[in-house]
Structures are given as structure tokens and as C-alpha cells.
Amino acid sequence: MALIVQKFGGTSLADPERIRRAASRVQKAVQQGNQVVVVVSAMGHTTDRLLAQAEELCERPSARELDMLLVTGEQVAASLFAIALQAHDVPSVSLTGALAGIRTEADHGNAQICKIDPARIHAELQQGKVAIVTGFQGVTEQGDPTTLGRGGSDTSAVALAAALGAELCEICTDVDGVYTADPREVPSAQKIEFLTYDEMMEMAVLGAVVLHPRAVETAKLHRVPVIVRSSFHDGHGTQIGMEPKRLQSVSEGV
Ligand code: ASP
Ligand code: MG
């Protein structure tokens, strides 16, 4: 039995039907005998909408109140995800960053994770449940909610995979994997099968939005194997890790 983390981005959760589809992916992974921790982003453009509402009321809202506001986006997605799984008799529970034991510094809006206590998640898994964790957020020592910066739920997923000793962190998104260039702009762009952490880092820093740079950094530090794949079909996506064994064995054989 493997423990895996599956993260779903906002586009993959934009409406109840998409949440249902994402949940059926998780159900499949459970039926294959895996323990699954799901990390969710907020649905669709929720985060942008919440920010716009705050800015309608105040030109410069305080960072602490913005965090209090923004964490609700992921909480809606997490609870709906749990409800979708329960509708198919898959035992599940949604957890906020605080409940999931994700402690951060108090730097509101751009907080760094300082430690994760995975006891609650392990306890839920032990009881046969899927744990659905809100991405992009944690809690300060005082108990205030924090967010990790835009795109931060990738980092939540990888950091949780590291803390749980997960076998794999799957980033399920609206593209098939990492491409040599943006396939919407460059028709000849090709999907990449394998990238080392450093190669992925270079691409993320250059603006490949598919994976947040801090998530890549965290994956490299803890050697978490990552796969970026579509949440809509079964294509095998792009693997990110240490040197690819496949290539080594090919050259050894020459
Ligand atoms: N919901 C947050 C954002 O839109 C975090 C994320 O999606 O990773 O930036
Ligand atoms: Mg993202």
C-alpha cells in the first residue's frame, strides 16, 4: 500500500462537475489500495474574486485580514471535495491548514512553512479516510491563518508529501505535463517526459507556471518524486526527480 499526495488546481475544481471528476480520480487511487492525501486549491478564480472584493472596500487591505479572507477559498473546495467523495461512499475528511498541522511564520501573504505535524493526517488515514487538506495556507504559532503566496498550494502538496514520507506527489492540473514552451503560443512545443529538480527549477523561475518555484525547491530538498499530469485524463505526464534511471540504464547498456 502506497501513501500518495494528489493536488488539484483551481481549474480542475472550477465547478461541482469538475470536483466530481477529480474525486473519482481519488476514488480510483483508493480502490487501487493507496492511502491518499488530497491537496486542493480554491475553485476557479475564487482567490482573484475575493481579492477584488477586498479592494473594492479598501485600497490597501491589511495583510492579516486578506489571509483571513483568502483561506476561505481553499476551505470551500476542500469541504465540497469531501462531500463529493462521501457521496460515493469513500470515507473522507477535510482539514484546514491548522488542522493538518501546517505551522508557518507570521509573514501574512507570503508565509513560509516552518514545520508540519502530520499526526492528525496519519490518524485519519489510519481510520481508512482520505484526508483533504486546504492548500496555500497554514497557521501561526498564535493560531492566526496565513497564506503562502499565489500559487502556494503546489508548495503545500510537496511539503505535506515530504512530512508524510509519501511515495509520490501528483500535481493534477489543466495541462498534460511540462512542455518545452507554452503549447498555446508555440504549436511545436513538446511535452517533456522527465526533468531533474534543477531543470524544473530553471523553467519555473523563467515563468513556466505549471509548478511554483518554492514547490520545486521543497521537492529537491526532501527528494520528493513529483509528477505533473492532467486531471482530466490518464496520460502519464512529466516526472520530476533525481537523474532518470531509464536514461542511465540505456547508456550503461551501450
Ligand atoms: N488559490 C491560490 C491562488 O490562486 C493558491 C493556489 O491556487 O495555489 O493563488
Ligand atoms: Mg497553480
Automatic annotation (TrEMBL):
Give a yes or no for keyword Amino-acid biosynthesis in this entry.
yes
* InterPro entries assigned to the protein according to its UniProt record, in alphabetical order: AceGlu_kinase-like_sf, AKii-LysC-BS, Asp/Glu/Uridylate_kinase, Asp_kinase, Aspartate_kinase_CS
Name a GO molecular-function annotation.
aspartate kinase activity
Pfam families xrefs:
AA_kinase
* Domain Aspartate/glutamate/uridylate kinase span(s) in chain numbering: 3-230
Q: Which reaction does it catalyse?
A: L-aspartate + ATP = 4-phospho-L-aspartate + ADP
User: Pathway, per Swiss-Prot/TrEMBL?
Assistant: Amino-acid biosynthesis; L-threonine biosynthesis; L-threonine from L-aspartate: step 1/5; Amino-acid biosynthesis; L-lysine biosynthesis via DAP pathway; (S)-tetrahydrodipicolinate from L-aspartate: step 1/4; Amino-acid biosynthesis; L-methionine biosynthesis via de novo pathway; L-homoserine from L-aspartate: step 1/3
Is the Heme keyword given for this protein?
A: no
Q: What is its EC number?
A: 2.7.2.4
Family membership, please give it: Belongs to the aspartokinase family.
Instruction: Provide the function of this protein.
Output: Catalyzes the phosphorylation of the beta-carboxyl group of aspartic acid with ATP to yield 4-phospho-L-aspartate, which is involved in the branched biosynthetic pathway leading to the biosynthesis of amino acids threonine, isoleucine and methionine.
What name does the UniProt record give this protein?
Aspartokinase
Source organism per UniProt = Tumebacillus lipolyticus
User: What broad taxonomic lineage does this protein's source fall under?
Assistant: Bacteria, Bacillati, Bacillota, Bacilli, Bacillales
